[in-house]
Amino acid sequence: MAPRQESHDLDAFGRLTGIDPFRPGKRHGRIAIPLRGKAPIALPVTVVRRGPGPLVLFTGGNHGDEFEGPIALMKIARALEPRDLVQGGAIFMPAINPPAIAAGTRTSPLDGRNLNRSFPGCANGTPTERIAHAITTAVLPHAVALFDLHAGGRTSVMIPSVMAHVFRDAQCTRRTVDAMKAFRAPAGILIKEYETRGMIDTTAERMGLIFGCCELGGAGMVTPETVGIAETGVRNVLKHFGIMAGRPVTAPWLGRRRSRVLEALSYDCYAKASVGGIFEPFVDLEARVAKGQPIGQIHPLGTARPAPAIQHAPVAGRVFMRHAFGLIARREWVAIVARDSDR
Ligand SMILES: [Zn+2]
Fold first, then answer.
1. What's the CA-to-centroid distance between 340 and ligand 1, angstroms?
2. Are residues 205 and 82 part of one domain?
3. pLDDT, tens digit, for every residue of 292-341?
4. pTM over cut 0.70
């Protein structure tokens, strides 16, 4: 058997992080993105490996106002040891967009860019494009699967879930749906994205990784349950890939332990605000709604006697996501209504 790579001939991942991803053990490192005249951006990386076998990558903090991912991945990266694994291992990157996380904003304050619209990135682009490039070229090639941990951000809340995509290749869809369900979030949802350009999803899927986008809560906050769902889900995924032993566990949400599968596979599932103003929801997450049912109203600002504008369910189904922040702009999403799925 050929000797494993040693530190003198590390690949791009090893050169950037100082960690040999093939070596068993547990190592913490960082990817430094140099900035002109300032301290570099440092992306923390932890590799925990037992031996030969697949590596699954978990990323958090892609958007800086979504916090379950960073919390859960920092905790697991500290706690997990090679002896807890059966084979292979995991790469944890709890904070892939440190400037946005430090500012608590969706996009980076350094260049105004959305990291999840900047993939596959650019070696000599803006700071955000360079983060994307480093992850694409050095980290993604090592992983068989990527779970990118998001939440609803400041403006929305969602049923804690794993979003997955449907592919032309049925086997590819099956593998993805199986991994989506393995997380055991309160919902797995098959979704048609509004825009796919620049997403880490698209880059990872093109590189052959199984991909799940976790949406773990929202409104710019975390709850004990959403953090618990994130931590439990990460461990469940490691069990699914045969990296950890043991049975999967379903974490509670709203006091219930349940995983359902939903579908929002057409753009008519998205309800957009007809006017700007103050949003008043009539229904909450998980509510069953009929097509055309009033789901909220928007109180316009700036008129003496504003008549509220009723917002209607675009399709029949279950409220998967709703606007959470008090103010809403015209054309912002009021809700996503998803259908129950038998997949
Ligand atoms: Zn996000």
1. 23
2. yes
3. 999 999 999 987 777 999 999 999 999 999 999 999 999 999 999 999 99
4. yes
